Amino acid sequence: MENQIDIQDEIKLRITPSAANYLLTATRWAKFLAILGFVYSGVVLILAFSIGAIMSLSMASAQMAMAGIPVVFLSFIYIVIAIISFLVAFYMYSFASKCQKGVNLHDEYEIEVGMKAMKTFYMIWGIIAIVGLSIVVLSLFVGIIASAAYSV
Questions:
Q1: Rounded alpha-carbon distances, angstroms, from residue 75 to 8, 62, 72, 81, 126
Q2: 45, 98, 107, 137: which could form a disulfide with 82 (CB 3.0–4.6 Å)?
Q3: Are 131 and 119 in contact (CB under 8 A)?
Q4: 56-77: per-residue pLDDT in tens?
Q5: Is residue 146 one of the residues assigned to a domain?
Q6: What is the DSSP track for 74-122?
Q7: How many domains are there within the chain?
Q8: pTM assigned to the model
């Protein structure tokens, strides 16, 4: 247990020039991906509000109406996806800008705030992964039960 560091103790961490360079490169890519995420969120939001018009022009609307799925529900799903993708892009952009500023100005506080944003970014992605895997497992069980019920 001697190797463990008490989280309450302040850790003096020095960033080497090569580590700072790697961090700056990572922040540039993170900023680029975050901007793409903002654009994606905007496109999904536009789709959310125009899905009714798009569906009325296609046969999918009639098939969805027969399945009992209202277009408003589909719009709601698109809005939720847009909000989640915006939050992911926001925290990625926050990480990139704060860490870039912290490295350039040698400001430990900005790096700390950037790392906190990165922690939140990964936490959101972890929750998305858990929810996605849960939906897959639930769908698998429902499919197995449905196929067993209809095969009798």
A1: 46, 16, 5, 10, 25
A2: 45
A3: no
A4: 777 655 666 556 667 788 889 9
A5: no
A6: HHHHHHHHHHHHHHHHHHHHHHHHHHHHHHHHT-HHHHHHHHHHHHHHH
A7: 1
A8: 0.80
